[in-house]
Amino acid sequence: MLLCATPFGVVLQLPALWFLTDATYHANVYSLQQPGLSLCMLAKGYRLHALTVQADIDARTLDMLLEKKKGYVICSPPITQALCDFERVGEEVVFVGMGQANQEGPLFDRMILTQSDERIWQEALDTTKREALYIRSSDAHSLPKRFPTDLIVTKEESESDEQFAQRIGQTLQTNPIIHLYAPSLGAWALPLAGKDTLLWTVEASFRNVIPPANLYGVVAEDLCQAFMQLLESETEDIVVEKRLFTGREMRGSWL
Q1: What pLDDT digit, counting tens, does each position of 226-251 carry?
Q2: Per-residue burial over 205-231, b = 16 or more CB atoms within 10 Å of its CB, e = otherwise
Q3: 57 and 96: one domain?
Q4: Which domain range does residue 172 map to?
Q5: Could you give the CA distance from residue 83 to residue 62 in angstroms, rounded to a whole number?
Q6: Taking CA 25 as the corner, what is the angle to CA 19 and CA 26, rounded to the nearest 5 degrees?
């Protein structure tokens, strides 16, 4: 009993690292990384605590929530956006925002800058066979390289979701597609999401649209890499990379 209690007591003495997140980001991004992220932070000498709050949190609630707390408070992208105009609260807290550079505000001491995910989608496509289809929205800025153009489907601005779903369906009938890569989803995806023969890789914010059995992977910010870099560097701004999290990782197996 004493041997078990001693390591637990040591962990309780570690400084806390607070992650202030909204419910959506918690469900789509944080929860799939939480086991490994907690271990990463323990290895750096920190206890990770996630605090889930309303995306439109106000200054009074923030002040009450962080009363007597010390150390790093990292904010998810939606919370960073909500707090970007807030004034400084607390002298013992280091506020870290996540998002674009234009979201920096007087509250934040440091920023974790999120990047576009074109690189990671290209890397994911580089590992696929011809049995994959890449689906682009009408406002996508770039085309994947080294991927067959006949297996890239782009939604036209004048095209309804129903029309786009029908066009994708026709492509699936004429090609042996088993894997859909879709950085952005719309109503067009609903008729296709339940097809048992299809696997999906999507951006993490669309994770819950696809049935778990059909979800091959999601693309999301690598929080372990970002938090480790934050603790190891003294620069005000660091860049977080996105990566592919497979279904095996999301189901809890890290082998």
Answers
A1: 999 999 988 889 998 899 998 777 66
A2: bbbeebeeebbbbbbbbbbbbbbbbbe
A3: yes
A4: 118-220
A5: 9
A6: 60
